[in-house]
Write a structure and sequence with these properties.
receptor, mainly alpha, 15 helices, G protein-coupled receptor 25, 2 domains, 373 residues, globular
């Protein structure tokens, strides 16, 4: 029978999402042998708070990025902006799953969503898996794009086109949807200790091996490709420290390089701790080295904290764009001024419909609007 250890009765909000429920013959046996529990307290309070903060920040930030970058015309836009919009879209879709997990965490991991509970369980887990894979895939593509732009500029002029970038993004979405299928298939609402929990079935060695393989393929391999790309870029720039033929274009490439590198560093820093803990736990299970009490407290506590850090990545990128990308700030300012101009024009039309623009009643309104532009 699938049940969880006492560790999960205390602390399961993020822990249960990432499928680390323990298979035991009898929960009471775990309690009777004096197994240590999690050191983290009040997870039913701080986890929902963290989730909702990430949710509201992520919704506002990613919509802001999509609107600002999407408002650029083809002449002022950059090829990397297509990846930026897709990254923001992936994060936006992901953060809409967080209220479900926040509600569950506030109820000690009870998944009480009625008849739609199992569908929401599978769907939210699937979306999170797709988000993780699509994020690292888009970042890998951005790194390869920077490599082609700096190291293979002339040889890649036919590859680095808007059409090729769109095809690449479509391929990333399709592959991410495929890689997320295991999270849909193996996720179900399971009765645990008198409540319903959204868990994955880890009783199969095949699924454990698949999860470990997915970690290697969707994190370790992409990070390795990213390191190779940027290592080659650094060596190339150090070797060819000469005056650029087109200083403006060279400065633009270097600026995009720094922005992409900042996004990648933020992603790796956010997801690396979680993947380390996940690999340790999966490897221990496959090697049958897991103690009878299940996952040790230091692993479970570390996993909870690392999950919060990983989820936080969904609202970090907008801040990076705003503070480090002057092209993004300039476009945001232009969009703001455009909206102000539209507002003034609307007021002028309203005034002209009601009365003459030269009247005393209408001029103060227009003067105040013009001062704010």
């Amino acid at each position: 029978m699938m049940i969880t250890s006492s560790l999960y009765t205390e602390n399961t909000a993020l822990y249960d999402y990432y499928d680390y429920n323990q298979t035991l013959d009898d929960e009471n046996d775990s309690l009777s042998v004096g197994c240590p529990g999690s050191h983290l307290q009040s997870t039913d309070i701080f986890l929902p708070v963290v989730y909702y903060l990430i949710f509201f920040t992520g919704v506002f930030g990613n919509i802001f990025v999509i609107v600002v970058v999407g408002s650029k015309n083809r002449r002022s836009g950059r090829l990397v902006d297509t990846f930026v919009i897709n990254l923001a879209l992936a994060d936006l879709i992901f953060v809409f799953t967080l209220p479900l997990w926040a509600i569950s965490a506030s109820q000690n991991d009870h998944w009480g969503f009625g008849a739609a509970g199992n569908l929401l369980c599978k769907l939210s887990s699937y979306i999170i898996a797709v988000n993780r894979v699509s994020n690292i895939s888009f970042l890998t593509c951005m790194s390869v794009d920077r490599y082609l732009a700096v190291v293979k500029l002339m040889d890649s002029r036919y590859l680095r086109t808007s059409g090729c970038i769109r095809i690449t993004c479509a391929a990333v979405w399709v592959s991410s949807l495929v890689f997320g299928i295991p999270s849909w298939v193996y996720r179900d609402v399971i009765p645990v200790g008198g409540r319903l929990s959204c868990l994955e079935d880890n009783s199969s060695s095949f699924f454990l091996a698949l999860s470990l393989t997915m970690t290697l393929v969707t994190f370790v391999l992409p990070v390795l490709i990213i390191v190779i790309c940027y290592g080659t870029i650094v060596l190339h720039l150090n070797k060819h420290c000469v005056t650029a033929v087109n200083p403006r274009a060279d400065a633009r490439r270097r600026h995009s390089l720094k922005m992409v590198l900042s996004i990648i560093v933020a992603f790796v820093a956010s997801w690396l701790p979680f993947n380390i803990f996940k690999t340790i736990i999966l490897s221990s299970r496959l090697a049958a080295a897991q103690p009878s009490c299940g996952v040790p407290p230091w692993q479970s506590d570390g996993l909870v904290i690392s999950c919060c850090l990983a989820f936080l990545n969904s609202c970090v990128n907008p801040a990076i764009y705003f503070f480090l990308d002057h092209h993004f700030r300039r476009q945001a300012q232009l969009l703001y001024k455009t909206s102000q101009t539209v507002s003034i024009m609307r007021e002028m039309v309203n005034c002209s419909l009601l009365q003459d623009l030269t009247t005393v009643q209408c001029l103060p309104v227009l003067n105040e609007s013009l001062r704010n532009v």
